[in-house]
Write a structure and sequence with these properties.
This protein has one domain: Arc Repressor Mutant, subunit A, CATH 1.10.10.10. It is α+β, with helices and mostly antiparallel strands. It has helices spanning about 1-30, 35-45, 50-55, 60-75, 95-115, 120-130, and strands spanning about 50, 75-80, 85-95. β2 (about 75-80) and β3 form a beta hairpin. Strands 1-3-2 form a three-stranded antiparallel sheet. The chain contains six helices and three strands, in the order ααβααββαα.
């Protein structure tokens, strides 16, 4: 029983530490965590329907609408009607969005390299595999 509490504490503290550092980086670039997640998903997957992206970054449709509107207002993404079905909108990165995301990604990746530098590649695979058992 005690080991469960130690494990829980370790997961929560490390998650909070990681989230706090990433939030600081995203704020430097005038983004929130969800906004970064959406930009990252579009960058990685390419233009996607809003519903697919919402599932990918695990947010509700209301939060998705707010986040999409924020990023459109900042000029980082745009909605485009899908040619085969005008009821479906795809989200695309704008040129400004691509340039902005690349700057963030550089700092983000450097941070992650430092944050996880204590682990070997094998340990990273093992930790990932073990934590994925929780979901």
């Amino acid at each position: 029983m005690k080991r469960n509490y130690i494990l829980l504490e370790s997961i929560i503290k490390s998650s909070k530490n990681l989230k706090d550092h990433l939030t600081t980086i995203f704020r430097e670039f005038d983004l929130g965590m969800t906004e970064f997640g959406l930009l990252e998903a579009i960058h990685t997957l390419g233009p996607q329907p809003i519903q697919i992206l919402a599932k990918r970054i695990l947010i509700t449709s209301g939060s998705m609408t707010y986040t999409v509107n924020q990023l459109i207002n900042k000029g980082y993404i745009e909605r485009k009607v899908f040619q085969l079905d005008n009821r479906v909108f795809f989200l695309h990165l704008t040129e400004k969005g691509k340039e902005h995301f690349e700057k963030i990604l550089l700092k983000h990746d450097n941070f992650l390299n430092n944050f996880f530098s204590e682990f070997t590649e094998e340990e990273k695979v093992l930790i990932s595999r073990l934590l994925r058992k929780l979901f």
